[in-house]
Amino acid sequence: MSALALPGRSSWVSWSLETIAAWVLAILWVSPLLYAIWAAFHANEYAIHFELFAPLTLENFEEALSQAPFIRYGINTFILVTMLLFSQLVVCTLAAYAFARFDFAGSNIAFALVLVQLMIAPEILIVENYSTLAKLGFIDTITGIGLPYMASAFGIFLLRQAFKSTPKELEEAARLEGCGLWGTLWRVYVPLARPTYLAYGLVSISHHWNNFLWPLIVTNSVETRPLTVGLGIFGAPESGVDWSIISAATLLSVAPLLVAFLLFQRQFIQSFMHSGIK
């Protein structure tokens, strides 16, 4: 009996250790956000000295909005991510459709080159991108921030995988109904790849919403700075702003992303579970 009970006990211990480790990692991961939430809703003297029943306040948010143009930064960021998401979806859809459903000379080599771009860090191209934008006159513009990211190798990869998993019988049925290439793409492939579009949209928005280094280099004025650069300048040590106000400004910057992820987390996870080389 004891020999039979050992495997069950061993698996229970293993499960317990994995659960404890997962909780510890989750708490460590979320602790900076929890601290930011605490500090943002409390006066500066409670930002370091924790008191459970300390009074709540919204003055930190009022101070942050009055000391820096975060509304303008938010508008700039919204314009940037919307422009990039639209251009990436168009370019990636067309490229992925070509890779998934057309056999042309060198298609495998071209797709391999797309995958190679996933291995190249964007920071390597900063000098060349800046030089090109300076020649085109796009320095200190929202278009200049987004121009190097108008196409995405990651988006092409994800959509190609989604399109290749679409049964060809549906495409043939659409052709019999009179749909051409564009009609088939719009009425068959795009609707079936909706979870992938949603997942990639969240990835694209979160990446460009949080992008800091490139916008810092290419922008010089309030009219073009996104939230990350504005927050970085606002929270610089020489500014003398206290932690509670900085935490409030941080929450203003990340709140839209947190809400979007909480609303679409199931589709986000399911899409990546079904992605893979096909």
Task: Detail the topology: elements first, then pairings.
Layout lengths: L1 H39 L18 H9 L2 H32 L5 H11 L8 H11 L5 H5 L6 H12 L3 H9 L4 H12 L1 H17 L2 H6 L8 H8 L8 H31 L5
Helix pairs in contact: 1-13, 2-13, 3-7, 3-10, 3-12, 4-7, 8-9, 10-13, 12-13
Which features does this protein show?
MetI-like fold; 278 residues; 2 domains; mainly alpha; single chain; disordered N terminus
Q: CATH superfamily of the largest domain, called what?
A: MetI-like
Q: Strand tally, please?
A: 0
Number of helices: 13
- Helix percentage range: over 70%
Largest sheet: none
First CA to last CA: what distance? 48 Å
Assign an overall shape.
globular
Q: How many structurally independent domains?
A: 2
Which CATH architecture of the largest domain would you pick? Answer: Orthogonal Bundle
Mean pLDDT: 86
And the CATH topology of the largest domain? Answer: MetI-like fold
Class derived from helix and strand content = mainly alpha
Strand proportion: under 5%
Q: What is the CATH C-level name of the largest domain?
A: Mainly Alpha
Order of H and E elements:
HHHHHHHHHHHHH
Question: What integer value in Å does the Rg equal?
Answer: 24 Å
Poorly predicted parts? 1-6
